[in-house]
């Protein structure tokens, strides 16, 4: 199946889906040393985001979150690609400076896709393949 | 979004990976906010300087960049006085990382004055009608409202991107259609000094990201406008306001539908609810003190000795331009620190309660420093430092 989307950060990558209906604050929600979601109140608590196609509505919280995404990438712990309902500047900037493909404008149902489903994100052509 | 041939080349990577990423940041923000094109900026003011805020992650990113800024660019306050950090109780480890952050910015040819009031240092950074890419919320408010320039509130990376490319996406406060007043605020009582911080504290909470126009009986000076804007940008996210017959006027004369009346009792309530009693530190200079404000502090402290810590924050250029004022203030036992402030330095976290004359500091100190905050006029703050409160 192919889904049309909007490119925010360029590139093409694939991986298993890790989806949540909750926004993510990279500063505070994710440990930059392990890539694990450490906020007990978050839907993804205890899960490692490394290498996954991370699907979430959008970012929130401190703008330092952009740098946390960069740090994750430097340590090999970043998501392979990210998909948002609507990207905001924190995650958009984080994805661009880290070279992680990011798209938005997908149907809301994407937030409930089964974890582990193989997904290919082709940001350059505005396409997601499931 | 429309891109020129040269902008497209940068996007493709013809000018190297740093500029490619920077252009991608500007284009992505332009797409998110529906900008038509990029617009050249006269200057950039970059937030994300205090190591307390950016941490190792931010330092790593800034250090990895290669290039040089295309337009005059200046920094926000950092986490310590770059020369007298030991006196502030800053650790060696923090000082090293903070200095490394400044060095990384200097490598990009950014002017490393660290201040939230660049307009007090250099007139040439912003003139009426200029497009800018500034970050610090109170400086953004001052540039838009008092100077009549045009800037959105940039994040650290988007400001840096604007500095290295020399442009910013044309949306938001760069367009007249978004600069119309949304709320009319009428105040019939006389206002002075910290009253403007209190008014901003109240109005920001009501108008949120709106554009208030004030009808005032008093005529605020530049320091009072600075305090009003800083406060509204903190308690709300006001990036532009007008004061009738004082600031440059709005693009249209249409009266906003929403009306707000504030009187003396509302203002007094802000002082009462945030008493400065039991403060163990008094901090002035949020935003950074002007020379006139240093003069007021020096006059109030003349011949007296402080009984509590009194820290006064300003820009290094201002302190260096009036050494005799700094000496008069410090003769009382108070300290004048540069390059930093009470909000972005970790030095203030060891105190229990801070008294301030700034509506902005009143909003941020409890959350960002874990310290209680009290609010009073400059005179009351000095009285507290002298042990008279």
Looking at this protein, list some descriptive labels.
heterodimer; A: 130 residues; alpha/beta; Glucose Oxidase, domain 1; globular; B: 389 residues; Aconitase, domain 3; 3 domains; 5-stranded parallel sheet; 4-stranded parallel sheet; 15 strands
Overview of the structural elements:
The complex is a heterodimer of chains A (130) and B (389). The N and C termini of chain A lie close together (5 Å). Chain A has an eight-stranded mixed β-sheet with strand order 1-8-7-3-4-5-6-2. Chain A has helices at 26-29, 65-74, 89-98; strands at 2-4, 6-9, 12-19, 53-56, 81-84, 102-104, 118-122, 127-129. Chain A is of the alpha/beta class. Chain A has a single domain (2-129), classed as Glucose Oxidase, domain 1 (3-Layer(bba) Sandwich), CATH 3.50.30.10. With 389 residues, chain B is α/β, with parallel strands linked by helices. Chain B has three domains: 5-176, Aconitase, domain 3 (2-Layer Sandwich); 180-271, no CATH class; 274-385, Aconitase, domain 3 (2-Layer Sandwich). Chain B has helices at residues 5-12, 17-33, 51-64, 92-107, 137-147, 156-165, 195-207, 222-235, 264-273, 291-301, 316-321, 323-330, 359-369, 378-385, and strands at 38-40, 44-46, 73-75, 111-114, 133-134, 167-169, 183-187, 212-216, 242-243, 258-261, 281-289, 309-314, 335-338, 353-356, 372-375. In chain B, α4 (92-107) links the parallel β3 (73-75) and β4. Chain B is globular and about 65 Å long.
Quick overview of this protein structure:
The complex is a heterodimer of chains A (130) and B (389). Chain A is of the alpha/beta class and 130 residues long.
